[in-house]
Amino acid sequence: MRIEKEEVEKYLDRIRGYTQDLVVYDSHVHPQEVFFGDGGTPPIGANGQAVPQTGAVVEVNEEKCGENEGCRFRHAAQLLNLKRCYRNFSPEHFLNHMNLAGVNASLLLPVAPASGEMKTGMESLSRLYGEKERFILGCSVPNTVETDKVDEFLSRMRSEHGARAVKLHPNITEIDPSQSRGRERVEAILDGCRRIGLPLVVHGGRSNVLRNLDARAYGSISNLASIPWSRSNNPVVIAHAGAYDCTLSEVEEKILPVLGRLLSQHSNLLLDFSGLECVVQTAILSKLGPGRIIFGSDALYSAPWRETVKLVYSLEKSGCDPEEGYRMIGGKNSEQYLFKKGIIQHASESVRTCVSGS
Question: What average pLDDT does the structure give for the chain?
């Protein structure tokens, strides 16, 4: 699949027309590099970042690796290294990307590593982004926090750093929901989100680039399907629609049937499309429609403008109305299910005031 730069610009013009009266949310943004562990401390007050530009959108869909884990690792590492364009960025650089994509507000999701604290990183992120009204800061629970102290930790993240959501990445943080200890950990985080009033964003799918072979698939849809997500009355987002690093055939044969069942069972459950190729987005839209999907770019592993264009392209290919579908996924669904519930409400209202007054 290739969309030339000229066509990309036409897509972006259409998208701006779709959303003139709408607050568009990017609900899956990483403020730091997460896979390679070199996020470091954000450069406080950094300036002079390059202005992002559009280009062609190209995807090569190959399933040549099959079940060969070594091949999958090499392929994933090559792709991710090509995508890895940053350690961290200043707010100004993120805003440039958001403006180019027509995004009004971004949810920033740090990821806890398998070992170590996040204290310094959260303090830095809070100083850098905490007072910027177009950014909504999330947090992640490190393994150093005892399971019976999760509520206390989340409450502290909210009060000290303004955290408005929680990111759980079973693969990177090495939490195995298929085992009793891992399931207990996931449910403790879920219960903490319910009691503190925070939405939860959960990585769904594999992470073939990880060297820990066992941890690569902790976030697989089969593992996530066993968790009682509706025990929280706050939104839960399965990121990447449970299909990260999964092939189209896996999505069609194994993942889509489970997603349909989960969405029926848990009314608080949503999906985001971050990190997915157009053929996968199209397959999911064709089966499930846009009603429970929210927009996420997985920035800055992928530029937000690129992901907005891919979404409209996928809506067209799936037979959905591109304008109504984009308005639902980019804004309406987020406001109805995610940003209008509980603790995040005031953040969306401040963004709406900012946008309507600009």
Answer: 86
